[in-house]
């Protein structure tokens, strides 16, 4: 039957996919941390000291 064959993985391709996934996770966590650290400061800076929180 056509289309039921399991493709073989090249080790270089698997390593590349793993590296891309690792980079995506690192960037996601890194930018999330920066947002938590700098977000309130930048919001205050951009809004000129105005805040919705009372």
UniProtKB/TrEMBL annotation:
Entry's transmembrane regions: 14-34
Keywords: Membrane, Transmembrane, Transmembrane helix
Protein name: Uncharacterized protein
InterPro entries noted in UniProt: DUF7512 (IPR055934)
Pfam families hit by this protein: DUF7512 (PF24352)
Source organism of the structure: Halobellus salinus
């Amino acid at each position: 039957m056509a289309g039921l064959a399991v493709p073989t993985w090249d080790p270089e391709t698997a390593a590349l996919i793993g590296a891309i996934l690792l980079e995506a996770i690192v960037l996601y966590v890194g930018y999330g941390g920066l947002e938590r650290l700098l977000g309130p400061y930048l919001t205050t800076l951009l809004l000129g000291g105005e805040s919705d929180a009372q």
